[in-house]
Amino acid sequence: MPILTDIRTLATCRADGGQRDVHAIAEAALVWQDGVITWLGPERDLPSIFAAEPRSSAGHRLVVPGLVDCHTHLAFGGWRADEFEARLRGKSYLEIARAGGGILRTVAATRSTPRDALVDRCRAHLAAARALGVTTVEAKSGYGLSLSAEITLLEVYEELGRTDASRVVPTFLGAHAVPPEFSADRVRYVSHVIEDMLPAVAARRLARFCDVFVEETAFSANEARAILEAARAHGLGGKLHADQLSNGGGAALAAELGTTSADHLECVSDAGIERLAATSVTAVSLPIASLYLRQPSMPARRLIEAGVPVAVATDFNPGSAPSFHLPLAMMLACTLQQMTPSEALKGATLYAARAIGLESTIGSLAPGKQADFAIIDAPDHVHWLYHFREDACVATYIAGRLVYLHAD
Ligand SMILES: [Zn+2]
Fold first, then answer.
1. pLDDT band for position 94 (50/70/90)?
2. Ligand 1 centroid to residue 315 C-alpha, Å
3. Which residues have C-beta within 8 Å of that of residue 328, sequence separation ≥ 6?
4. How confident is the model at residue 215, as a pLDDT?
5. Residue 271 Cα to ligand 1 middle (Å)
6. Cα(162) to centroid of ligand 1, in Å?
7. Averaged over 201-228, what is the pLDDT?
8. 240 CA distance to ligand 1 centroid (A)?
9. Separation of 72 CA from ligand 1 center, angstroms?
10. Which residues have CB less than 5 Å away from ligand 1 (the ion)?
11. Pairing of strands 67-69, 134-140
């Protein structure tokens, strides 16, 4: 029964107390067995039955629950660094898309990347994320946009879920954009998603969630409603890319459908916030995307004060958020969205787990939960997000197994 001792601050992130309460324990110890936490508390209270068990030291550092990145577009071919530069030179996202760039360019690159190469790329990203303390990653399809290419992406995630050290939670995002083959008949593409893709994905249990990009340039609220209702009938949970570039009623739709999460919400209205507050929908904040697109970020303060839980994620993708650095997103949630470090930490742990339906097993540290945690070289989480360093994580554990150790 391994024991981690000499923890200066153990931020447990238990559910009670709301977003700002991470239930930190000073000078703590953590005990687990067979991957599951059996005891935690002040080290001086460590029961004597553990006296002979093997111990390791956290080095008088911070320990947090394994970070949960609850919104990524993990598998894609190619990159789009040239578009990053073009946007900085003044080209708009729409102009770039009209010139053949944007999501559809990544769709072409992804379709022409062999499956094994996609697996290898994802593995490298997941390993790099583990070195940041990230133990669970939600991963969306959506760069295939044909039945076979979407299935391939979900098979990539299925293989990673079986063989990679990280936990991977797959989401079907066939309604990410209308692919070129259907550009003249978007109605037929929505039908294709509902009648062909969803049943195939559900029959093989390749996804836990279905997501839809609701935006003027993507899908309407009515199209999203039809897709998510069909997904629910197949047993998939719902997610929405909502109110990112304009207010398209995404928050109200998420509230109406009772989706598990509503993501982005940069342009959410007061009425939308009110609707969300009356439901159990988790809002997912993606401040890296706001930063790269140089747009106002989610009004997280207003959401939190209205009682909406706000998760924090990266939105890792090759266009608007080409970084999987979740602690960076947490720091930006503080600096751009005025979330406190405690709120950002709970947003990237317990509430992120809630946003992917795994709150009962991961996202906080308590007896009975998975021993997923990270040792951070900081005295506490406030100092961690204040004195931001890209390599503050010194060790990461998943189900009690060491999966990353800083080289020094
Ligand atoms: Zn996204």
1. confident
2. 5
3. 288, 314, 388, 390
4. 87
5. 23
6. 24
7. 95
8. 9
9. 6
10. 315
11. parallel
